[in-house]
């Protein structure tokens, strides 16, 4: 019984690590996006752009 209680955290961590590895291995390859270039600024408030 003592051995089972001592091994419980190890088994939990092992299951967590195996789950993360499985998610990474089985995930589809990311789609190739467009290259990073000039992007417009995000305006959250309409008419929020100031002219200097």
Task: Walk me through this protein's architecture.
- The structure is a single chain.
- This protein is an all-alpha fold.
- 48% of the residues lie in helices and 0% in strands.
- It has one helix and no strands.
- The longest helix is centred in the N-terminal third of the chain and has 25 residues.
Strand-helix topology:
Elements: H1 2-26
Keywords, separated by commas or semicolons:
52 residues, 0% strand, mainly alpha
> Tally of extended strands?
0
Task: Evaluate the radius of gyration.
Answer: 24 Å
Distance between the termini: 75 Å
Contiguous uncertain segments of 5+ residues: none
Counting helices, strands and paired strands, the structural category is mainly alpha
**Order of secondary-structure elements:** H
Estimate what percentage of residues fall within beta strands.
under 5%
Helix run count: 1
Average of the residue pLDDT scores: 79
- Mind summarizing the main beta sheet? none
What is the 3D shape?
elongated
In helices, the fraction of residues equals 40-55%
């Amino acid at each position: 019984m003592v051995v089972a209680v001592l091994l419980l955290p190890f088994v939990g961590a092992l299951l967590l690590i195996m789950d993360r590895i499985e998610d990474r291995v089985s995930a589809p390859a990311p789609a190739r996006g467009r290259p990073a270039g000039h992007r417009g600024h995000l305006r959250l408030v309409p008419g929020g752009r100031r002219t200097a």
